[in-house]
Here is the input.
Amino acid sequence: MKIKKIKINAKTPYDVIIGKGILSDLAAELPENLGKTAVIITDNNVLPLYEPVVRKSLKEAGFSVISYTFESGEKHKTPKELIKILNFLADNKVTRSDFIIALGGGIVGDMAGFAAGVYLRGIKYVQVPTTFLAAVDSSVGGKTAVNLNAGKNLAGMFYQPAITICDTDTFKTLDDITFADGVSEAVKHGFILDEAFFRKLQSRTREEYMNEIVEIVARNVEIKGRIVEADEFEQGKRQLLNFGHTAAHAIEKCTDHAVSHGQAVATGMVIMARAAYKKGFCNADFSMEIKEAFSGFKSIFDTDITAEEMAEAALSDKKRSGEKINIVIPESIGNCVIKQIEVSELLEIFKLGLEK
Ligand code: GLY
Here is the structure.
């Protein structure tokens, strides 16, 4: 069995383990002294698919196991749901000698991680991503959050897991749009920092991704991990990971999340690459190459949201600071930079990016 292990040297270091079919022996990968009781936090989609196999492995290894399930979907990533999780932990007398397993996609990981961070001022947790998107992005780097009415991920904390364990076989049960959500973040990692990796991913179909999925997830985790090590708390370089995300969060907000995160990121990257060229921030328009990276998937790049609507949605986002905003723009493929612009310039950038 092919297993890759990548160390993330954050303030509290941890391993990311990636392999095919490793869920059934999950307990064997856990670090020692995690605790006595494992609290599996998952959603109603993942529950029937993977909770039983994880529970069995934990029980056989001698852990007590309890589970908490919430309804899947971005609209449940709320402070209200977080409080329900915290009350469940308290009602079940979970202590600092116990730990959480975040079993699912990014929403589960973000909420379970946040619950772990604040419950009893912090208990350990394990990220077990079951989507391609969570595997290459949210399960690594310790960002946890819930959404507020004003925008996505506005309440949260940096809180690193004790370990991340990714079984790439779980991606087989994803629908095509959810699989393509992971493609967006993988393509993004190549585009911002590793041209050879970006080229390697060009025009792949889902089947071609799955043929090399352990290596592809591992390369993503390496790229993201090195950024997190350099700037865990997003004071500088980590902002590169937000390439396309200001536009993406605005699209998600304007469509009430009918457009998935990955589709919004793919569209956001195209908008920012096109606008960067038209504004003279770079010498070439890379938007077509970004589009080509998704030719194996039915991603939606066209949006009927106006630049005005997007700018209004974006400016309530947390990346606004005073009258300036940081955006990420390409200088070349594999070499993106952070640029500070006036808040008032964002509307023009969205306009230029949305024009064909
Ligand atoms: N998803 C971007 C980050 O973790 O910083």
Q: What stands out?
A: Residues 176-193 form the longest helix (18 residues). The chain has a mean pLDDT of 95. DSSP finds 14 helices and twelve strands in the chain. The longest strand covers residues 324-332.
